[in-house]
């Protein structure tokens, strides 16, 4: 228990993390440093390994987990007494899981935090929008930033933002996720934080393909910086704030994802650049690369809001129209050279 001002003990906040993948396990490990934490996973072998040997052999082999972390396959038991529920699930699983929580959560006001970085297929909704439809009345938020799971488990320093619709609640929950090597900032801009995390995966694929084709650091830097410009333009059109998209949730996350071989989306692009097909690449992956799905939503949202996003458009063509990375990058190089800040900044009308 932590003391309140005046020395009165404050009961611990119990946390349940839903999802036993690499990032869900890592966040549960972080929370276990501060408060009673349960990790829910579907795979009995994963649960057994965490409870008996303090490891997640499937996703994080060789990384010991906090000794106080508990795991279960029983969803009702996991969330029944939780003060906070954290969803570490692929985007396609968020709605159905949220629907199953309606009758299971202990109180109507239980906060729900999303870790997913993407849009819902078909609706193009952000994850907190999906949660708001399925769990009305619950404070919602997103924990996001440049966070590579294995580096964090290795004790290397990292930072993230916790953005919530109830901003004072974000300050209350901030210590739940913070450790000496994982610094969590609060944020009021849920839209900007969520959009930044969703869109950056598209540019990780682009940056990975540049690396896979061995086009050099100059080319990769150009893709990353032009990707930032596209991300900020669409992000602000969707209601995010420019400074948010230039911070940890946008630029920071994009940088880590675009330069690290640990990034699944970077690896997808890298292998595409080396000449493998998307089907071959995805067949060899054990976890979801959200950028492959997110680029559909990004393309549709860009058209709806009349935002020019040539890099995202080319990533879509490679992933979903069978185009080669060579075609995409060659077309980018031959494309019209306009104002570097984009057509809106230059006073031009965007073109699709």
Structure description:
There is one protein chain. By secondary structure, the protein is an alpha/beta fold. It folds into two domains: 187 residues, Rossmann fold (3-Layer(aba) Sandwich); 142 residues, N-(1-d-carboxylethyl)-l-norvaline Dehydrogenase, domain 2 (Orthogonal Bundle). Helices cover 49% and strands 11% of the residues. The strands form two sheets. The chain has an eight-stranded mixed beta sheet, sandwiched between helices. Strands 1-2 form a two-stranded antiparallel sheet. Helix 4 links the parallel strand 6 and strand 7. The longest helix is centred in the middle third of the chain and has 23 residues. The termini are far apart.
Shape: globular
End-to-end Cα distance: 56 Å
What is the CATH architecture descriptor of the largest domain?
Answer: 3-Layer(aba) Sandwich
Indicate the proportion of strand residues.
5-15%
CATH H-level homologous superfamily name of the largest domain:
NAD(P)-binding Rossmann-like Domain
How would you concisely characterize the structure shown here?
The chain has two domains: 2-188, NAD(P)-binding Rossmann-like Domain (Rossmann fold, 3-Layer(aba) Sandwich); 193-334, Orthogonal Bundle (N-(1-d-carboxylethyl)-l-norvaline Dehydrogenase, domain 2), CATH 1.10.1040.10. The protein is built from 16 helices and ten strands. The protein has helices spanning 22-32, 44-53, 75-79, 91-101, 127-134, 149-153, 167-177, 190-212, 217-237, 242-245, 248-259, 264-273, 278-283, 290-304, 310-320, 325-334, and strands spanning 2-3, 9-10, 15-18, 37-40, 70-72, 84-87, 112-114, 140-144, 158-164, 182-187.
């Amino acid at each position: 228990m932590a003391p309140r001002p005046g020395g009165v003990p404050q009961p611990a906040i119990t946390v349940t993390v839903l999802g036993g993948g690499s990032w869900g396990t890592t966040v549960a490990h972080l929370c276990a440093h501060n408060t009673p934490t349960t990790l829910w996973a579907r795979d009995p072998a994963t649960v057994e390994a965490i409870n008996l040997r303090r490891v997640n052999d499937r996703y994080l082999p060789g990384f010991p987990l906090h000794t106080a972390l508990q795991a279960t396959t029983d969803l009702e038991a996991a969330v029944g007494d939780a003060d906070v529920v954290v969803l570490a699930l692929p985007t396609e699983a968020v709605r159905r899981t949220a629907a199953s929580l309606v009758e299971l959560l202990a109180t109507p006001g239980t906060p729900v935090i999303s870790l997913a970085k993407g849009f819902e297929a078909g609706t193009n909704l952000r994850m907190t929008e999906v949660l708001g439809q399925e769990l009305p009345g619950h404070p919602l938020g997103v924990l996001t930033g440049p966070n590579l799971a294995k580096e964090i488990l290795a004790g290397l320093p990292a930072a993230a933002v916790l953005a919530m619709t109830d901003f004072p609640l974000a300050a209350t929950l901030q210590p739940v996720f913070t450790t000496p090597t994982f610094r969590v900032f609060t944020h009021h801009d849920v839209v900007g934080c969520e959009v930044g995390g969703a869109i950056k995966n598209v540019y990780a694929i682009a940056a990975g393909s540049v690396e896979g084709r061995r086009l050099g650091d100059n080319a990769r830097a150009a893709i990353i910086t032009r990707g930032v410009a596209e991300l900020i333009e669409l992000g602000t059109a969707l209601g995010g704030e420019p400074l948010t998209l230039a911070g940890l949730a946008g630029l920071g996350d994009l940088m880590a994802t675009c330069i690290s071989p640990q990034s699944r989306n970077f690896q997808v692009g890298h292998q595409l650049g080396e000449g493998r097909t998307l089907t071959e690449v995805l067949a060899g992956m054990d976890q979801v690369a959200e950028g492959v799905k997110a680029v559909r939503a990004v393309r549709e949202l860009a058209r709806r809001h009349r935002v020019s996003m040539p890099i995202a458009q080319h990533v879509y063509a490679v992933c979903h129209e069978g185009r080669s990375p060579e075609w995409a990058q060659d077309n980018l190089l031959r494309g019209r050279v306009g104002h570097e800040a984009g057509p809106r900044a230059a006073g031009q009308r965007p073109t699709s």
